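Limitations
The structure tokens in this dataset are predictions for the assembled complex, not deposited experimental models. Users should treat interface geometry with appropriate caution, especially where small molecules or nucleic acid strands are included. An illustrative entry is reproduced here so readers can see what is and is not provided.
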Amino acid sequence: MTPPSWPPHWGFILASYGLTCLAVLLILGGSLIRLYRAKRRLALMHRLYKPSSSLD
Amino acid sequence: MLAVGMIWGLFFAPADWQQGETVRIMFLHVPMAWLASLDYALLALCGFLYLIWRNPLIGLIAVEAGPLGAMAAALCLITGSLWGKPSWGTWWVWDARLTSVLILFCLYLGHILTIRAFDDPLRGQRAAALLALAGAVDLPIIKFSVQWWNSLHQPASITLTKAPTMAMSFFYPLIVCTIGFTLTGFALLLLRLHAALLERRAQALAMQDPTL
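Predicted assembly:
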């Protein structure tokens, strides 16, 4: 069986690799942003919580 | 490791005598299929353990593993479609293997949506654990579908009991890519778990002091 000459095979290959890299980078970037935000929120909570607890 | 495997597969692995250059898609498609199945096995195991012990950490692992598995299953279907068009002449057939992987993707979506569908997150996690456990029946169907039914999809080239039926020039980059994607998936899961635990700690602090 000979694969058809059109569409070009490298298009399929590069689309596969591009899409996979994009998906991995997006999920990695999203997770890193989420981690950064969670760290900032936690630091803010610690800062806000300390003065209020010292009033008790 | 992932970068080495992908560059090896894309530039240095030889072209196949029958499929030509399109065989390079295998170095993505097979690891994605493996990762999607492995992730679902983890999801089912977490579901089982969660139903017994109701441990919140186990529930959290299931919550964070779901989207990663859904991504792997989606990429497995898309790369398979992109491989199928030049090899088989079609993007999609309702073949047993392809359909069972599509069902796996739907199970992942169902799991993600079930967790978020309830006002009480614990009830959502319980329902999702039941769904994950019931959906585990799809894993052996995916594995043996090419043996049980007449399928356009090729049978497994790598098994634990026999030597691989593919040339070593394909086998080595495939193994490197598979290990690379597995480690990347595991690292992403740990990263998401770390973020989720910090979010919960911040939420617990906020609830502890209602003035905040």
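Some entries come with short summary sentences. For this one: Chain A touches chain B at residues 1, 3-4, 7, 9-10, 12-13, 15-17, 19-21, 23-24, 27-28, 31-32, 34-35, 38-39, 41-42, 44-46, 48-49, 52-53 (CB under 8 Å).
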